[in-house]
From TrEMBL:
Organism (species): Bacillus sonorensis L12
InterPro entries: Aldolase_TIM, OMPdecase, OMPdecase_AS, OMPdecase_bac, OMPdeCOase_dom, RibuloseP-bd_barrel
Encoding gene, per UniProt annotation: pyrF
Residue positions binding substrate: 11, 33, 60-69, 123, 185, 194, 214-215
Catalysis performed (reactions): orotidine 5'-phosphate + H(+) = UMP + CO2
Molecular function terms, GO-annotated: orotidine-5'-phosphate decarboxylase activity
Name used for this protein in its record: Orotidine 5'-phosphate decarboxylase
Length: 239
């Protein structure tokens, strides 16, 4: 995923809202993320419409279920022609292996299998929440590293983590393991419900594979200008 542009989280309620937003970008080739809200509203047809607009797609459905169910879900998702899909690492090693087997079984000969990544800890999770609500006493960064190790052992292509954990994953798991990082904010932006945030410049410095940006672009007064500012920071281009 070298030279991946910022992945825009299309957290919109419908296709018309999504395309009203995308039309502002004047045909520019974009990498977008379709999450639960949009997918549950529009179904697979939204993916066809986005592909028709030349978008690369991260389908962010964060599957987390028993291995057989995740295998079958991934077998279906493999036919959608998207670039990236994900599961929750908390589903365990056997579930992640089943996810990969499902994707491989559902990818037709001659087609490229979508990359599969595992969510470690959500970027909205704080150390306090992990310890007090989930009763996980291990330090948050250690849990992310541990989940990343067993995602790699399960054959996955990478993980979703915050920028703050990416460097250790790169050093201690594998330099070729993808780190896809949400929780990205420009220095002056609101954090909203995110906790472990970082700027695009921090992400570049830490060597993450890709950044995912939602509200800093979608809720900006001028989304195209916000996107371009993020692209410049992410690529290290001085203003
Ligand atoms: O608006 P914002 O930039 O916070 O959006 C981040 C996007 O990334 C949301 O669509 C959210 O579902 C997703 N995400 C996340 N943390 C994860 C995995 C996905 O914020 N660990």
């Amino acid at each position: 995923m070298n030279n991946t542009p910022p992945i825009i989280a299309l957290d919109f309620a419908s296709a018309p809202e999504t395309f009203a937003f995308l039309n502002r970008f004047d045909g520019e080739e974009l990498f977008v993320k379709v999450g639960m809200e949009l997918f549950y509203q529009e179904g697979p047809s939204i993916l066809e419409q986005l592909k028709h607009r030349n978008c690369r797609i991260f389908l962010d459905l964060k599957c987390h279920d028993i291995p057989t169910t995740v295998y079958k879900a991934m077998k279906r998702l493999a036919g959608f022609g998207v670039h990236l899909v994900n599961v929750h690492a908390a589903g365990g090693k056997r579930m992640m292996e089943a996810a990969l087997e499902g994707l491989e079984a559902g990818t037709s000969a001659g087609q490229k299998r979508p990359s599969l990544i595992a969510v470690t800890q959500l970027t909205s999770t704080s150390p306090e929440m992990l310890h007090e609500e989930l009763l996980i006493k291990t330090p948050l960064a250690e849990t992310v590293l541990h989940y990343s190790r067993f995602a790699e052992e399960s054959g996955l292509d990478g993980v979703v983590c915050s920028v703050h954990e990416a460097e250790r994953i790169y050093q201690e798991v594998s330099p070729s393991f993808l780190t896809v990082t949400p929780g990205i904010r420009l220095a002056d932006d609101q954090k909203n419900d995110q906790v472990r945030v970082a700027t695009p410049a921090d992400a570049k410095e830490k060597g993450v594979s890709a950044i995912v940006v939602g509200r800093s672009i979608t809720k900006a007064e001028d989304p195209v200008a916000a996107y371009q500012k993020i692209v410049r920071e992410w690529k290290g281009i001085k203003a």
